[in-house]
# Entry
Amino acid sequence: MELRQLRYVVAVAEHRHFRRAAQALGMTQPSLSRQVGAVERELGAALFERTARGVVPTAAGAVYVVHARRVLEQVEAGATEARRAARGQAGSLRLGFVGEALIELLPSLLARFRSAHPGVVLECRELSTAQSGAALLAGDIDLAITRGAPTGEGAERLTAVPVAGDHLIAVCHRGHPFAGQPAISPEQLRGQSLIAAPAADEPAATRVLAALVKAAGGITHARDVHTVIGLAACGIGVGLVPSSVRRLGRPETVMVEVDPPLRLPDLTMSFRGADISPALGAFLDVTRAHCPGTGKRLARVMPRRHQKAG
# Structure
């Protein structure tokens, strides 16, 4: 039995007349009668009682029409969802990100994406740079935002685009000698008790800190930038944090520039270039529009079929 035959039966039931149903379907009455008769023979039951004024569903016909409508509605719903998924308006997107991406980049970017694509289910997981790279290569996530591009075996299969630059600044208690200075030099950090994050599983950022840590008067490894600021507020030492952390300051702390700047690896957006899903393509389109300077980079690496016209 074919879907078109279900439509024929439903049309006859709705119009209660073969001729009117045939006209609505754009076919001849004899053809419609033959198709409905074929369904009745396959079922072994009459679906309609023919009268001089039209047709009336039999008991079997009334039951069959209910199920036929249900099947047709499900098929149409499936087709609608499939079209929405193909346009990036449905489906899911699995995102892995380092915690620092939540300071400036992700809040506005995710809000904009959710507004434009409310039907896409977002699954977000905070992961280290190393964990995100591994999860992306294993197919466990679709997109990663990391401190620097993922490295290691298989990383050549990934497309990585910088989305935000950053540099180190110092955070100290407001009673610390650094608090009254507009900027300090890297040399002034020598011998200081330093507080640093991320931990050793972020090798790219750790390399930037290595020289300072080696010359420090002591080092406290914090889990994240919030802990760094909290410890600095307690007077434990001088914290080293990305410049984007400025907005997270506390009344007890002061943020101080380090001059010359010590640049951190960029926040980088990575994905498997060979298998971009429509939902991921939609997210990249939103990123292109949202992140100044990133749009042209993404346009160069995104497959043409995933780029919106204009």
Notes: The chain has three domains: 3-86, 94-163+269-306, 164-265. The longest helix spans residues 59-86. The longest strand covers residues 158-173. The mean pLDDT is 85.
